[in-house]
Specification:
single chain; mainly alpha; 0% strand
C-alpha cells in the first residue's frame, strides 16, 4: 500500500491501496469470483464487529481491527481466501489491535467469543446460522475445550504474525470519527441528529464492498459522512463548496456519498442472496461453495 506523502500528517493519514492492488487480489488469482470475495469480506467485517462488541472493546479499536482485516486481503501480495480462513484473520486482527491499545484482551477471551459466534447451533449471526439461533442455546454447542483452546491459540498467534508480515508491520490506522466532529464544530453544526447519523455512516462504511477506508483518507470520509447526513436529516450547511476547505474535491465527495448511501441496499441484498445458506468462514467451506457453483454451472 502507498504511504502518506507527507510524514507530518502520518497520524491523520492512512496507507491507501493502489489501483493495481484493488484490481488484482490474491483471492482473485486463486479463482475466487469478485462477488464471492465481496460477500466473504463483508461477513468477516461483521464478524469482527460483533466479536469486538461481545469483548466490550471500544468502537475505535473495533474499527481499526476491521480496517486491518480489510487491508490483509488487498492486492496480489495480500492474503488469499483459498489459504487463510476469514475467521482466523478476523480473530487475529481483533486480538492484535486490542493488544496494541489501552484495552488488551486475552487469547482465551477472543477464542471463546469466536467459538460462540461460529457455532452453527448457537450463533446469532445470519451468515453463520441462517436459520436463526435458539433463544437459549445449550453451552455444549459452543464450549471450547482446553485442547481446542491450545490448538486455536497457536493458530491465532501464527495468523497474527502472518498479518504483520503481509502489512509490512504497518499497523497504523487513522479513523475519521474525531475529524468529523471537529469539522462539524468548525462549521457551527450543533445538531445531535446529524452527528449521530455521521457516526452511523462512518461505521457502516467499514463494511463497504468498495473498501472505502482503504481508498480514501479520513478527512474525505468525514466530509462525505457530514454531507450525506446533513442532507438526510435536513440540516442546511454553510453555502459554497465547503468541502474544498477540508481538502476534498467534488469527484471524491460524490463517489463516497454514493458508496456510503448504498450500504443499506448492499447489506439487504447480501442477506437475500445467502438466504438459507451460510457464508464460507473457512478455506474448506470456500472450496465447497466454489465446487457447488461449478456444478451448478455445468448442470445448466
Amino acid at each position: 500500500m502507498a504511504t502518506p506523502a507527507t510524514s507530518g500528517l502520518k497520524y491523520l493519514s492512512n496507507a491507501l491501496a493502489t489501483a493495481e492492488q484493488l484490481s488484482n487480489s490474491s483471492s482473485a488469482i486463486d479463482g475466487v469470483s469478485p462477488d464471492l470475495e465481496a460477500s466473504i469480506r463483508f461477513a468477516g467485517a461483521q464478524l469482527t464487529q460483533t466479536a469486538g462488541i461481545l469483548l466490550r472493546l471500544s468502537q475505535d479499536i473495533i474499527a481499526q481491527a476491521i480496517v486491518t482485516f480489510t487491508r490483509f486481503w488487498i492486492g496480489s501480495e495480500g492474503g488469499s481466501l483459498r489459504i487463510h480462513s476469514v475467521k482466523d484473520v478476523s480473530a487475529a486482527a481483533l486480538y492484535m489491535t486490542a493488544k496494541l491499545s489501552f484495552q488488551p484482551t486475552s487469547p482465551r477471551s477472543v477464542l471463546n467469543v469466536y467459538t460462540f459466534l461460529l457455532s452453527k447451533e448457537a450463533s446469532p449471526l445470519w451468515f453463520v446460522n441462517p436459520n436463526g439461533s435458539p433463544d437459549k442455546p445449550t453451552p455444549e454447542t459452543y464450549h471450547l475445550t482446553e485442547g481446542g483452546y491450545q490448538a486455536q491459540r497457536q493458530v491465532l498467534l501464527r495468523t497474527e504474525s502472518i498479518i504483520l508480515r503481509t502489512l509490512g508491520f504497518n499497523t497504523h490506522v487513522a479513523l475519521p470519527h474525531t475529524i468529523a466532529l471537529t469539522y462539524l464544530q468548525t462549521m457551527g453544526v450543533s445538531s445531535s441528529a446529524v452527528a449521530k447519523r455521521v457516526f452511523e455512516h462512518l461505521n457502516s462504511a467499514l463494511l463497504s464492498p468498495q473498501l472505502l477506508y482503504a481508498t480514501h483518507q479520513p478527512n474525505a470520509l468525514a466530509v462525505a459522512a457530514i454531507y450525506l447526513s446533513a442532507r438526510e436529516v435536513g440540516v442546511k450547511l454553510v453555502d459554497s463548496d465547503w468541502w474544498e476547505v477540508f481538502d476534498v474535491d467534488r469527484e471524491d465527495l460524490g463517489f463516497l456519498v454514493v458508496g456510503m448511501g448504498s450500504m443499506e441496499g448492499f447489506a439487504r441484498a447480501e442477506v437475500e442472496k445467502w438466504k438459507g445458506r451460510g457464508v464460507p468462514m473457512t478455506a474448506d467451506e470456500l472450496d465447497g461453495e466454489m465446487e457447488r457453483r461449478r456444478m451448478m454451472q455445468e448442470g445448466e
